[in-house]
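Example A, followed by Example B.
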Amino acid sequence: MQDIEMIVAVQVTQAVFSLLLAALLLAFLIAFKHRFLRHWALSCLAMSLYLASAAALTQMLAGSTPDPQLRLLLSMFSQIMAYLHVLWLLMGAWEAASDRDVPRPLNIALVTMAVAIGVGSSLIVPFDEQGAALRNLIRFSLLHAITGIAFAVTAVMLFRALRVAGSISSYLVPLAFSGYGLYMIYLAGASAWMTLNNALLGHVRLLGLGGFLLQILIGYSIVIWLLEIERRRALRARSDAETAQQRLVHFRMHDPATGLPNRRQLQDQLATEVSAATIKRNRVAVLAIGLHRFKLISQALGWQETDRMVRRLSVQLRQRLPADATLGRIGDRDFVVILPNVGSRQRAIDRCKEILGASAEPLVHHGQEVFLALSGGLCMAPDDQIDAVALIELAQQAQMRAVSSGQALVVHQSVRAARQPHDLIRLEQELRAGVRERQFELHFQPLVSIRQRRVTGFETLLRWNHPQRGLLTPGTFLQEAVRLGILDDLEDQILHQALSQLHEWQNDLAVPTVTASINLSAQRFQQPDLPGKLAELCEQMQVDPHDLHLEITESTAMQDFEAGLNTISRLRELGCKVCLDDFGTGYSSLSHLRRLQVDYVKLDRSFIANLERDRHERDLTRAVVDLIHSLGMTVLAEGVETRQQLGWLIQCRVDVVQGFLLGKPRPAAAYRRALLDPQLIMRAAAPERTRATAQSD
């Protein structure tokens, strides 16, 4: 009797442990999404039910007069669970080893077969006293042998799948499964010997205890294995993140088609050269080179062939440059050359004419000569300017004058310094009058949610309705407003107009929630009382702060990083959403991005420009989007101008898009219809998008 009680106690203990292991595997399945854990959790659950019903059956048989029908039903349930345990064990092992799902029709067929075997084995001479030995051999010995073989097969499959990993679990997991398989095979032999000899082995009490210990070993080995998988996954993700960041840095500083330095790297290089030239009392020449008839060539040859031609032209230009010169590309048809230590102005002019003349030689394309006419604009530091950005702009302006005048090279002529104070005073008077007379107004560009397929918000863009010069964009006056100290008053007007318009949308139109995005200057963002002012304004204008999105650039956030973190935290506590604007044009550090904890990240339009023709840029954009998503942030892409770009952005899993394709900056009244029918813009952009989204990388 004590032996029976011992067997029942061990079976109940094993059943409880199997149930706990099933719950643990289910938790791992939810957390880590490993598909094979589903079948192993079911296998452990079936094993728990089998052991519990076997314990109940053993206790029942130890009684005086067990009910035959109840005994049969309990035996049938026990056998079904045992064979399902074996089946789900093998299915999970196959999925773990092959990283594929068992097809659903096959899954159903195998489960049906296991149930049928369980029912059939329990119906063999169920009530015949003379058939007790046969019943024991089928229900216990055969079942244990099949279970042991299943565990041994599982051990072999896992060993083959894990041996390349070279980790602890690659040996521990197969060892644990094979140990339990040998234990079950030995149990099958012991059970058959006891049945045939009608005797009880002396160590029968230890058999159950050994199985329990092996169960614990299997559980621990699985946990160690899953943790190692996650550790390897985390290391791989970190490596991918670092690789993507390196690619991002390279992409941020180089032109993707030619590999030449882009505008940003040229500006950094030029700033360094100008600083060195100032100390040495020398000159730095900046030559802007424009390629004529670029649109005609690209239409005739196609984008890919045009890129090849531009690469060949860049090689030809580099061959004509001095060793210390830097060649970069700042646009589809625009190159910039930095020439340090040029000496006199006339020497610099002569050198640039030589470069343009020698580079005008025709390029051979498929046996035919293609003539690429070039024009140049030249300026010099420190004669004309010392700021790198201004120098490149002056050179480009001179190059455009060369195009309009038909000359090969135009040299920038400096504006007399005597006129600058007068012009600045006049501009200040006009700006102050504009603020006082409320000549500044907001235009709105729609933000479209890819998932919701509707307009969910608008970015506010400033315009100056100048009495004489018409509608002006911020590029013509904003820097001067900063220099003259007018920006604060101007931004106050912007905030009032934006919140007033947001209040009007939310109260006068029966539309879903619409947000307004406002660009904050570095000066405004650094003000300690910014969150308090915004809270007062939102309360005054009766606007929910959750519908107010505030855009800051990377450089703004990085000016005082710790103070920026505090400001962002306070803005988010208020309810405002914070968006990091122009991501990819500044520091672009993932560690900084993770610490900033913004809500949105807006990709710079440089990510979008070449999506249609460059697979590597699509891969890079998708990697960056995935990384931003992994930080719990929403991705917004600006500068969407074609349906093909929109299609690729959808494939890259971008959340929100904006651009001329979906709507140009216009007064609020122009988008009233789009708000009343929020999906109107998305439907207009959709028809020709299908071709891009149907393609595969």
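Example B, a separate protein, is given below in the same form.
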Amino acid sequence: MTTTSQPVLLKRSALALLLFAGCSNSQTAARGASSVATSGNVGQAVGHPSDKLIPRATLFGNPQRAGVQLSHDGKWISWLAPVDGVMNVWAAPLNALDQAAPLTHETKRPVRSYVWAYTNAHVLYLQDAGGDENFHVFRVALRNGKADGDAVDLTPQAGARVELAAASYLAPSKVMITENDRNPEMMDVYSLDIATGERKLVLRNDEGFSDFSFDHTMTVTFGTRMTPDGGSAIMRRTGDKWVPFQTVGMADSMTTAMVGPVGESSDIYMLDSRGRDTAALVQLDATGQKQSVLAENALADAGDALVHPTTDLIQAIAFDYEKPSWKLLDPSIAPDVKAIQAFAPDAWSIGSRTVDDKLWLVTASSATQPARYFLWNRATQKQTFLFSARPELDAIQLAPMSSHVIKARDGKKLVSYLTLPRSADPDGDGRANAPVPMVLMVHGGPWARDEYGYNAIHQLLANRGYAVLAVNFRGSTGFGKAFINAGNGAWGKAMHNDLLDAVQYAVDNGVTRADNVCIVGGSYGGYATLAGLTLTPEQFKCGVDIVGPSNLITLMKSIPAYWAPLMAQFKQRVGDHETDEGRKALLAVSPLTHADKIVRPLLIGQGANDPRVKQAESEQIVAAMQKANRPVSYALFPDEGHGFARPENNLAFLGVVEAFLSAHLGGEYQPLTAAELAASSMQIKAGALGIPGLPTTSAK
């Protein structure tokens, strides 16, 4: 475990964090105007803009502030905010917010991830080029709260990917990073001097490790590597040697993982589902033989944790079934947690904690309210409201979200979330007064999950007149190993059936009609969209696929090089593209195989630099549909990767999505403007006639 003042998401496995999780439905969306033949009512918008529509930019434009953090000494507060329309890091004295000044000056891609160095005089942030995910670490120095010179690329190695791995208040001028510049398939461990940029090799990864753990001195203590059966071997580093510590079988590989040392002791924290279904937080002795269960939940895996900023002791752990709940492990923070839950009853997190642990940065939100930030003073036990992420939404009545546990045809319980238009649910009880058009929103991953809380895409679509249903189908994380493993080899099969069962639940409960549902998703959700329109071609009225794979064989062959150590698990969970039997099975559930069966209109959004789901995945199904004279609209973003980072691109694509859904489901839409289109890089490569209201000046 790294020494940090921030809450951590306890590691389950690299696979759960890596595959398609980079595309978020809540984030997803050229110029040029070619078209293909269309059918049905494509291009005939049945919705019209009204004064009650929430502008897209209010929900998806740059927030006023986001990513709020405290410096480790508590003297400064920082956040992400726009500079000339691009999100950058700002800082201000904690007691003088009006003195805020930008520290970074990115002009193209927003800063999305940054941390304070323990020097309290430097900020580090990650940036890639055009969405290629080859992140570099940049440093900006501070003097009197303002940037002291330009940002410096501390890891300029071309074509390499860097990840921040560990930091400690005991060595404030140094961080540990992992980087694959020596071998694209292996992440080596380096120490990095923040001030000088000197990089020193600490550990050459010749063992094929996919993950490392560090102690409080930033010493590598454990490494995890995949085994041929799709499980994992956790090795302990003793001197210069690796010693076997724990073996994890395939069934437990996504719910059992190393967390790190228990403070400065020789004991170890782990997540462990071996001998149980859900991942419990456990403590092991140095031998790995004696285990104590610290916290467990029969329905949900252990998740977010509150970690002491200097001792690394886990003080509280969260479990999230329908909604998150916390279990306290350290009674000393009980008064703090109780007080925070009083002013943040729906959802809260601790964004950062000072090294002396006197100040906490609390983020509070609810399904009908985006993030609001508070300063929590532990000494006085008082909160100070700082600001809202999107204050322009404070006066707007948003649509509530309700949780539903839907039973699949084989008895599996699918935790799902429904957002209804306020006109269809005036009392906010989560039950529709009359059927309305519905969007089935499928999350990416698939080893990820939907959660209860504020969701911008839900709010946009509900405001336009649609019910929105998000389903945690089998294979989703957070609900135990049996639920995850039920998704093995189930792409386009049982995983797809779960989505169909959820739609039937909505029909049976009067939410919508069976013939008035569109399927939308990004990444794996994009695959689910394509599968829905090919494997069950009459089920959905239309589909929106964002960076989704169309051919599972070409997907597996083109994964990023640094995922190579995870291939054994991919083969177990998705399918083996290197055997005749495996290829046959993958082709059977690949949408491209059945492209000629598509009869419903389809909209596709793709980033040209996507390293996970290559541009070819979208282009090949577009070509197949054009050949078969099927209705398809295709938007390409030359400056994006796996999902759309630039808000201008998000707004443009969502404008297209709104119009497309209106044409087929009948809801309202806010027409895309020429200015929005010009601000984006979007190129409509096919099917412009299928997008109502597209500015005629869209050709570029």
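On Example B: The chain is about 15% helix and 30% strand.
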